[in-house]
Fold each of these.
Amino acid sequence: MSSTTDFATFYLGGLYFGITATDVLELNKNLDVTRVPKSPKTVRGIMNLRGQLVPAIDMYERLGLENTSHQQETISIILQCEGMLIALLVDNVGEIIPLEQDTFESPPNNFPKMSRELVLGVHKLPEKLLLILDPKQLIKGIAFSGKPALLSV
Amino acid sequence: MDNNDDILAEFIIEAREILDQLDLDFVQLEETPHDKKLVGNIFRAMHTLKGSSGFFAFKRLEKVSHAGESLLGKIRDGHLALDTQKTSTLLMALDALREIISGIEVANTEPAGDDALLIADLLSLANGGEVSSNNNRGAIPSPQPSTPPLETTQTTEDLVLDAIESEDIEATDEALMGDSLVATDNEMVVDTAAPTGNARTTEVAAPVKVNLELLDKLMNLVSEMVLARNRLLPFTAEFGDHNFSNTVRSIDLLTLELQERMMKTRMQPISQVWAKFPRLVRDIANDCHKKVTLIQEGAETELDRTLLDGIRDPLIHIIRNSVDHGIELPAERLAKGKPENGKVLLRAIHENGMVVIEIADDGGGIKFDAVRQKAVDKKLVSFEDAKKLSDIQLLEFIFLPGFSTNQVVTNLSGRGVGMDVVKNNISAIGGSIEIDSHRGKGTNIRLKIPLTLAIMPALFVRCENERYAIPQNSISEMVRIDPNNSTGLEDFYGTPVFRLRGKLVPLLFLNQQLKLSEHSPDSTKAINVAILQSSGISFGLVVDEVLNMQEVVVKPLGALLKGIPDFAGATILGDGRVALILDVDGMAIHSGLVAKIQARPLNPETVFDQVREEEVSMLLFELAGLERIAIPLDNVERLENFALSRVQRNGSREVVQYGDHIMHLIRMNDYIEGGQPSVDSPTQPLSVIVHYVNQMPIGLVVSQVHDIIHVPKKLQAANPPQRGLAGCVLMGEKVINVVDLQEILMMRNLQEHQKTYPEVIDMDVLR
């Protein structure tokens, strides 16, 4: 009881992911994404969330997964992290599930190195694995190097 | 909320204001040392500060302000005269007070510190002595015979305490009752200048201090409200319900007013930033032993608060340059036949919906030879080419990123130090900078700043099926290049260029710049080009399609995307989609275009020179009965075509709906001597030149717009004067008449009241 955490879950390329539910603000379906030329590949563009600009993260790119589904519909999970809003574009969302700490394990060694940095650990559920993502790491890898030094003040 | 905390917060704010005012007053006082009223004001302000410090039991504040007050009292009573040394010591006292106040703000109690030396100086001066310490910045040894400090057996500390106890218990009480900074029974702020007594009744309408964050939130909400209104408007046509339409219309009007009022709350006078400059100039001038007078004009000009923050550092930088490097030493000035006192002029004016801030000095001007040398050293030009560069061309180098380094400061101590940083800061808030300098005569720097950052007019263009916004202030014109009747695109050392009125304009292709696609436009088809100004160059941006002009609310892209130099931000369109706003400066610099053009100028600069010195751009057009009429381009905001069906009548006036405004139309041919009544053809749209008066559009109807021409600035007066014309200029063999827009607008206004045009215009009536 003491260490139960709620996780918002979603599906992407056949894998099952979870994020601490308290980080998630809301879910949206099919928001228009405006492409931002020259942006990192992982940022598919920006969206308008009731007057706020929110960068939309292409989770296939971010996790280094191959996009096999090519489905038209995208769902955005709006996260609040490090003082800003970001949207994760995913295929499908699952339920919010409460989980005890004791099913939690560190990421398996056979994970690709890149995704191992993003995954805090794994919850072994009866029928499948739930990969828990670290939102901070998700953002960290994207941020720009900034303008060339000459122009910075 | 703790009531005491509130009172303390008020105290800090008020104390800061007093200190800022004192800064100004002291510098003013140094110039007019016999201004009794001013001394009185300063004394009173210091006294108030002391009284309130006593109330909060801030001992350090109390002691320093008391010592300051003692000295001021002597000066006020005419026992002592103010000199540089006394002013400097008093200013040091202000700095100490400021530091203590900052400490109190952080910790709610006074920071530890020892002011004994300062207090000793103040008291010694008050007693007709000299300062004992030599930490007195900017102090010039007094030429008058110095009296030794009064013999005293007391320590400074004792002296102060005694003084406080003996004279001023009464004054402290009085301060608490009347002059106090804060009212203790409620949270109202008592105006320190107001007389005691029934001041309270008038305070109900006193300004309210509002949290800035809250204001920003409100501003954001209003901006969204405007956009939501835009989405609502089309529904009225769809439903055709009268009641619904009326409701929407009132929402429309209310939103507009809300937006305007909201913008006003963010406007603050530029004097807020300037207030610190007299002190700054004085300190720098003292440091480098120069005599400089700062002249301020237009301090009441209002600017958006966020912009005020943005111009503070650039202005300080420029002013410091002016005093430090621009103004010569007094002896040097005298030798050159200039007055010993150098002048720095700070002027703010409204111009075409922008605020122009001018910083001019009458110093030695930019050290052009040093700039030339530096350009050669940095391998920006060859030695031979550098010799040919004119002064004006050399000025452009100053803004190049990294052009000035620390070495420039020490070795050359030329001006233009870090001007690229200034330029970047100004660009970041949507402004631009121009510099003009003449050897031995001085330098004039003009900053053009938009009135507000949050909302700006932008032109929408399409490129690869996506819409982009270009800030209107960087667009000079739109051109369509048709390969059939022009020379088309050419190549200039690898840069695509085209000819615009005989001058080469380099081109940038938006699709390639944004790495959307590689292809260049089909050379047999016409292309759309926006001519943009940036970083001292003019270039053409090739886009697929030119869409509409619209006011946009600028939003930052956020931390994840802000590193892309091509974008200044984004905006949300009426349909809810996001459109990116192009950063014209960023594109020009990062495409390498600026560097290329700087290295190899496209057009012979003599032409450029003339335009700067003597020529003026005008728009050439035609009226019924008059073939060649021109209007200065400064008076032209936009060109529009309106179908005749859009023109509506409002009483005797013709109007069209134009954006959020009703635009009145003026038939130019009715007002100009020799004009004939025009006959509108129902199929031909009306050509309209849009001119703004007090931010309201006015449409000048003409028969046909021809071209932009460059003509001599000096007009030849028509003799006898002709109605509606200011004079004429010669272009080649042809005479071109230039309209007198002011007169036409006046005639127009007079017609409101009188049906006929009067013989003589009484200028006073018009004011």
Amino acid sequence: MAHRTEWNADEARAVIATHEDGGLLVVLNALNERFGYLHKDAVGFAAKALNLSRAEVHGVASFYHDFRERPPGRHVLKLCGAEACQSMGGNAIASHATRELGIEFGETTADEAVTLERVYCLGLCACAPAALLDGVPVGRLDGNAVSALIAEARK
Amino acid sequence: MSRRVFVARDAGAIAVGADRVAAAIRDAAERAALDVEIVRTGSRGLYWLEPMVEVETQNGRVAYGPIRPEDVCGLFACGFLDGGRHLRALGPTDSIPWLKRQTRLTFARCGVTDPLSLDDYRTHHGYEGLARALTLQPQEIVEEVARSGLRGRGGAGFPTGIKWRTAAEAKGDTKYIVCNADEGDSGTFADRMLMEGDPFLLIEGMTIAGLATGATKGVIYCRSEYPHAIATMNAAIATARAANLLGTRIADSNRDFDIEMRVGAGSYVCGEETALLESLEGKRGQVRAKPPLPAHAGLFAKPTVVNNVLTFAAAAWVLAEGAEAYKALGYGRSRGTMPIQLAGNLKHPGLFEAPFGMTLRELIDDVGGGTASGRPVRAVQAGGPLGAYFPHALFDMPYDYEAYTANDGLIGHGGLVVFDDTVDMAHQARFAMEFCALESCGKCTPCRIGSIRGVEVVDRIVAGIDREANAELLKELCETLKFGSLCALGGFTPYPVMSAINHFPEDFGLAREMAEV
């Protein structure tokens, strides 16, 4: 399970203070990593600390795929959907995962165990199809392996 | 005396169980009270043999693979510590034909050494390039790189020496060296392997670029999808600083250079150099119009060299071994070696570094061993998601920037993704447009909106609605994207789309003659 904490305004301000020298992207990455998403108040906090408009911060926050608007589940499964994984049956693996979890990409299961996300290339193209489960790489996936990953995450 | 066993710590090896294998070896050695030192290296790049286990014997290193955790007991039983016979024995590592056929310059150390050991790096000729660079005038470094014929390995193939010369001659109190490690192309993983397997080489190459251009600050922009590469680079940067190889008065010279690691946030277009600079400045990753060139006004409007990981790595080799040695290899105007990444549906996928000039037939049918599925090869996508799909009929063209361009394709960052005969090329064309729509930064209308229209047009062709007219429309749309977009995302998305329709018209329900009009 990833190391994340519940949204907390004081902690968010502290995270921003530690990272503000690096600029907005560094700040947003740090917030997204700590809390798993960008809370609606995060935009205002970052704007104030960096002397930017809320619109500028929102523009950046909404541009990058990594930044979530809602908290993810306890585990995040990122399945690669790029060409090298497609060539090894990646599309079938993707359907298998959505069917088994009962959700679409970008959604979280009702028990909040798993968030399923699409990524385009993990650099694991020579052991495709590939995925990252909470940052841990997994390769040479087939239906059974995906089921095992999901079962592990649901424990 | 302790016996040394080598298991990769590369993300690709970990993805297929290298950590579990290393743990099983450690446990088995403890149980048998054997003194075994496990060295976690980068990957040799023979991914179908990962997790690969190597042992140092009196006759050099011998390899076993692929090894599962449950195979480890058997390895000990057969005396693998002395190179014993085993079903999965591969013999002396250096004699494995797949490795032996390569010319490993950039990847000479990857898979051999402990990536975070500075001693290992130095023992294996590391920092020889920097040592030589420190004896040269900045101009001499630039000319050495220019003479080598090295071209940017990120995709555009621009001569590195000219880029460095431009930045060196630009006036500015602050200059930057930016490493593009936003390796987003599907089918490419050489940057990741190098950062995880030989991080000091990248640090050395960037430092040399700093000496050549007068820049004192370096930034590596790495994609967030590479957590292992980021961790390894951070550790290596800290080690280099502690050894006075980064920071002020590096290596007892009067020169300063330091490197900072920055992480992206999942945007493909940030691999384009100007979008990358915007992203580094904390903005949306939107492409800038050129001019000004980054070498004149790049990061924070200061003169900036932006090069790919492999370019800096090759430059370090050029300084160590000399421009002539590098230039002696290659084909036509493509000099030196290319770390070619064989990926997708292949029996033997992995990293194959070779001088330019090999044919796809050699690379795919011979080196790659044909498809993993055992079915015939139907198409190869060269150069990532913006690269063309080539049919078997074009498998004899040489691996060379100019030859690929002449065939409406690109070398790109050196990836080759192989598909067998179950591939639906209309689906692949649709995906190319879909990917462009998803990743477009929004700056240029043809890319932002044209890609969405492109998906719809492909859908109409596949559904059989006015097929010929829609195929004509798709071609016109591709022309608009190609000539109406600032960067390669909109400009090159037509390559996969048009190559799919031209070379595989039957998948779109089109007659061959029609497609060739």
